[in-house]
Amino acid sequence: MYAKLVLRNARRSVRDYLIYLVTMTICVAMFYSFLSISSSYYHPDIGSEYNFTILSDGMKVAVCAISLLLLFLIRFVNNYMLRRRQREFAVQAVMGMEQKTIGRLFFAETFLMGMVSIVIGIFLGVFCSQFITAMLLTSYGKSYELSWTLFPDTVFLTVCFFVFSFLVVGIFHTRTIRKTKIIDMLAADRKNDPELKKSRWIRVMAILFEMFTVWMLVVGIQKIVFYYDIRLAFPVQVMYWGNVLLPLLILLWPVCWFLRRKKTVTIPSTELLQKTGFPVMLLGLLTLSVPNILLSASVPAMINHYYLSLGAGMMNQYLFFVLINLIFFLCSLIYLAGSLLAAWKEKSPEHRYHRENLFFFGQILSKLNTTSKTMSLISVTLVLAIFMFIAAPILVGWASGYLDVRSMYDIQIFSRYNDVYEEENLPLDDYGIVTDFLAEHGIQTDHDCTFSLYLPGREDFHRRTKYDFPIAAISLSDYNRIREMLGYQPIALSDNEFTTHWKSIATDEEQRSFLKEHPSVMTDAGELNLTEQSYYEEAIGETAYNSYTNVLYVFPDHVCEQLLPVIRNRYITTAETISYENARELERIFSEEYPETADTGVSYSIRLSTLQINSTKANNFILQAAMLYGAVVLMVICLTILSLQQLLDADQYHYRFSVLRKLGVEEPRIGKLILKQLGVWFGLPIVVAVIVSTVGIVYFVQTISAEISAYIGFGTLMLQSGITVGILALLLICYFLCTWILFRRSVAP
Questions:
Q1: What is the Cβ-side half-sphere exposure of residue 393, based on CA atoms within 13 angstroms?
Q2: Residue among 391, 411, 427 nearest 541 (CA)
Q3: Residue 194 has what pLDDT?
Q4: Hey, where are the domains in the chain?
């Protein structure tokens, strides 16, 4: 009997469960698709040189950690269903059914719908997993073919996780139903809206914002005192003075507001009090925060463009300032939305009384005034989700591009002399242990180059300081051997000439400035002049440079013979890719013979492309997949909350719209009114989040523009931005349509 009752209630309430089914299905599909990578039955064809276990274990940990957020979402959605059915539960209790039985029936009903969502979600997860597999194989440079495979262990983990979640939440709700009084259930749909109270959280936000502004002012004044120069370009001066004057105005504005309000208190005019109320003060702070954000965000652009020396950590400081200003801007705008809408309504009688606008304003304002904190949290969460979407490919592309530079050779051995202070302790080894290992394991080499890096002057070795090392030089013959290894054409130099080679991360302006200032260089072997071909910028590996430098001198061989060698490197390319096991063994043997820091102060390192590619590709994919998964989960949570906040008051909306019908409003106009209401409700936090995230992303891109240009490309960045907008739009359309369908059904006559 109970089983039939559960099935009947489930069929009858399937439309009420639409949001529940959509949310749970999306969660199950995302969980299965991302977790499928860690399946023991998943064996992608990525080559024997890769160790897939690293990626598989990392994905399992990342997905399970992020999926803990789904527990909150499951409970929130179940709370919605519980509140929606309270009146029905009360009627059943009055008719004689025990409340514990009602709780069990509700648990069975939600559990049944949950199992339906699991089945549908796993089916969709198989489809979505193809995109995850395509992303994986693309990252490893392999071709992709569709393969519809159901992984039993992933299915088992998915079912176990969600069944456990349903059981925990169901037990909690069963207990809630058993302890709730029948009279409270009957009156649940007749409860009035919460009493409007003065919000305290935004006042706390304003106080904290003022405190951080004091910090901004102090930092700005310090930089003015120590770094301001009237000879600098006008944009730089604007940045300097703006980061002092705007924080000062932000601090002075509340003082002026308070003094003005104190004068008007004695005047018995409500209008005057309204004009000097807290929203006005907050609006002033909001207005001032906009140029403050722009000027703070201009700091990295000015530093990169004009090569400003603002000290270590200045980028991070102003990143924090921009973040604080953006959060305050977002919260203030959400809080003031109701006040601004009310002010517009009062000043525009022609719009206020036009058709059903008076009813519309009442609907929106009553909701905004009671949910401003929730709406702010939703917007902040959406900003985080959008940033994760955009930042994921940037970080992964940066790491992948950097990998190409780090792993240009199959074996790369290099040394550093940072902690060496005696010339006799400088490295001169040829690393014969590597030669023996290659011969023992039958590994054939195509190229093998052992070379030294030199300092132009011997005194440079003794005068170096931390983070300020001299530019090193390489002999022409060794430089051409490296170019031959990489397939580049050799170069030629006269006896008294030199040229330069630059890292890919170096900017064009940095190159031009350096070459203009260094047309010649003085060495222990005499003066050298810059050759006509003054620079080369093909990638040759990051270890071919001295510490903290982006340029390498190329000197004739006879000059280098008279210079002090300070670094000893060895680059090897092999005929075939070194296996993962051999690479691990060689790394272990080398580390035992050449410790990371020797007693002499020399530091030795070995990089094997097999190990570098394994760890980097695995970590990159885990990072990207985890950030994308987390972003989608956060978006689903935000859109679910927005949807359910409208549907929770369905009974009140039913009464209000019934009154509207009695007044003669036709159904098409009611439909437009519903669309307008839902459009404002969904649009406000999303539009604010998009604006704030755009500013944050622009600042982020400014700070690493050189890295993006060198390793990623702005075309890839724009493509990912389009994908982010598409996913957000798809989820928004899905939830908006579901909310609209359920809302129309709730207010139907």
A1: 18
A2: 411
A3: 45
A4: 1-191, 201-344, 370-406+611-749, 411-576
Task: Choose among 394, 438, 455, 498: nearest CA to 718.
Answer: 394
Region 184-197 average pLDDT: 52
Which residues are CB-contacts of 264 (< 8 A; sequence separation ≥ 6)?
A: 272, 273, 275, 276
Q: SS3 helix, strand, coil % of the chain, rounded to 5?
A: 70, 10, 20
Q: Are 653 and 291 in contact (CB under 8 A)?
A: no
* Position 269 pLDDT exceeds 50: no
Which amino acid is located at 684 in the chain? L
Angle of the 609-647 helix axis to the 99-139 helix axis, nearest 10: 140
CA 594 – CA 429 distance, rounded (Å):
10
Model confidence band, residue 450 (pLDDT cutoffs 50, 70, 90): very high
Distance CA 388, CA 630 (A): 8
Inter-residue contact 250 to 215 (CB < 8 Å): no
Q: Distance of CA 92 to CAs 101, 163, 370, 649, Å?
A: 10, 27, 32, 22
Write down the pLDDT at residue 308: 67
Q: Check whether 496 has a pLDDT greater than 60.
A: yes
Q: Give tens-digit pLDDT for 35-88.
A: 888 887 777 766 655 666 777 777 778 787 777 777 777 777 777 777 766 776
Tokens of 153: 């262990």
What's the CA dihedral at 177, 181, 187, 188 to 10 degrees? -30
Q: Does residue 225 register a pLDDT over 60? A: no
Phi, psi of 561 (to 5 degrees): -65, -20
Q: To which residue do tokens 């935000």 refer?
A: 638
Closest CA to 76 of 412, 377, 294: 377
18-35 and 68-84 are packed helices; what angle lies between their axes, rounded to 10 degrees? 170
Asked if residue 536 has pLDDT above 90, the reply is yes
- 8 Å CB contact between 214 and 184: no
Asked whether 279 and 343 are in contact (CB, 8 A), the reply is: no
Work out the widest C-alpha separation in the chain, in whole angstroms: 106
Q: Which residue has the tokens 């064809």?
A: 45
pTM reported for the whole predicted model:
0.72
Contact 566, 472 (CB under 8 A): yes
Determine contact, residues 402/710, Cβ cutoff 8 Å. Answer: no
| Residues 306, 232: Cα–Cα separation, whole Å | 9
Given a cut of 60, whether residue 181 has pLDDT beyond it is yes
Query: What secondary structure letter does DSSP report for 500?
Result: E
Q: Cα dist. 663→310, 418, 613, 656, 660 in Å?
A: 67, 84, 71, 11, 5
Buried residues in 557-588 as b, exposed as e (16+ CB within 10 A): eebbeebbbbbbbbbbbbeebbebebbbebbe
State the pLDDT at residue 529.
94
Higher pLDDT, 340 or 588: 588
